[in-house]
Amino acid sequence: MEVKSMNTTAIIIGLLFLISIVAAENPYRFFELHVTYGDISPLGVAQQGILINGMFPGPDIISVTNENLIINVFNHLDEPFLISWSGIRNRRNSFQDGVYGTTCPIPPGMNYTYALQVKDQIGSFYYFPSLGFHKSAGGFGGIRISSNPSVPLPFPTPADDYTVLIGDWYKTNHNDLRAQLDNGGTLSFPDGILINGLSSGATLNIEPGKTYRLRISNVGLQNSLNFRIQNHMMMLVEVEGTHTIQTPLSSLDVHVGQSYSVLVTADQPAKDYYVVVSTRFTSNILTTTGVLHYTNSVEPVSGPIPNGPKLLRWSFDQARAIKTDLAASGPRQSPQGSYHYGMINITRTIRLANSVGLIEGKQRYAVNSASFYPADTPLKLADYFKIEGVYNPGSISDQPTHGEIFPVTSVMQTDYKAFVEVVFENSENTVQTWHLDGHSSFVVGMELYKWSPDSRKLYNLNDAIPRCTVQVFPRSWTAVYIPLDNVGMWNMRSELWERQYLGQQFYMRVYTTSTSLNDECLIPNNALLCGKAIDRI
Ligand SMILES: *[C@@H]1O[C@H](CO)[C@@H](O)[C@H](O)[C@H]1NC(C)=O
Ligand SMILES: *[C@@H]1O[C@H](CO)[C@@H](O)[C@H](O)[C@H]1NC(C)=O
Q: Do residues 305 and 276 make contact, with C-beta atoms less than 8 angstroms apart?
């Protein structure tokens, strides 16, 4: 795809606006991310990985609430590339979201400078490459947003923070995996599981008596994972930007795309202990171990590797026990829906049913029977430049149709400031995870079997956790409340990468007639242009 930068006049106009918007300043942080191929061999055989600044996984992006992050991404690959920011809300600014529907790909040999603001956000997230099947080759890294130093944490400051990126892994090159799907195939069972890019020996160093924060994200492609540490309890403290009621856990399920923080205290005899990650809900369980290493350790890891949970019921119980710590201070979502989400009237109910089927004889996935195909122009740019014929805002039903799967560039129109109930209905036999960009969703309920209006009686309308990535168990439903407080074009996708790639996603156009810059930013002055938007300014 041809891509151009906006012209100088646009840049000057853009800068003038930029200066006026950001006058009352939050600090800036500058990052450069250089994206290259490199040899990696996480499973003992060399394969082509995607490195960020020479690293696999990439470096952490570390910031503080409200800061402006200026991130210049240089694409040294021979393919178009984009990075997206899982869980970063990009308030008023879906242009910076870095997914197909919002941002033109960075052509090979070029760079693009993202300008994000982590407005009113704290917590643990990650970045990842959003196009093609790049995510299967790496290109991901942690994102950490600390509270403003004047805001006390609801727990003693940990001795250190560790990013723990876990995920299933394939030895197959990302282009081959992609070709496999393009040709109508599916992904096989993964070849292994990685902890911070390693299939064995990943090490977390701890000093006796001290407490550490582990920021755990599942950056894999397909599998829910269970995380545990031999002989150590973990205290759950944060889920995707919200402090939780502190709950001691012996193990933690992390579904694809999700992030959690736990505290671990070095309160055991000084030796090495297994850190264990294993697949959930698979008949053949894949397991990988790392090491929790006491700095004064006198003994290598030993003893049986602790087993993970087996029952689905266990996972339901753990998920439903995760509650918001309503007493913790810290930034919140917009006042609408922040403290008393349970008392706000629902303006619309959207039910989303995933399904699988064939289109022209090839494997596809769908939401309410709509299987997403990208158009030639990012949807946000089509919107911004009022280019007709790229998508229709009503191209996906907001209720299951149970009809045959059909191909479409699916966009669902919603109103800015609407307060919607979304019910994810999974009649399939696998765990799903869903992610909505730009927003946080209160997880009010999840149960086995079919949802009905009566199911609302089971909702937690008091202290449900708001999060960006939510699981839906096999033959079950999950209900969320979403304050649509962010104008823009936002991707709602399956985090299961085969499903996402083959159509289980759509865009939610959060729309207002207002053109106020308080509601939505202008297109960035350095925006790349492509498709039908190529000659626009
Ligand atoms: C590319 O990087 C240069 C600095 O090296 C920067 O001035 C320029 O704005 C970047 N390009 C884009 C499109 O962001
Ligand atoms: C919610 O709806 C009810 C019934 O329609 C109405 O009486 C109430 O005032 C509404 N509450 C809010 C906060 O708008």
A: yes
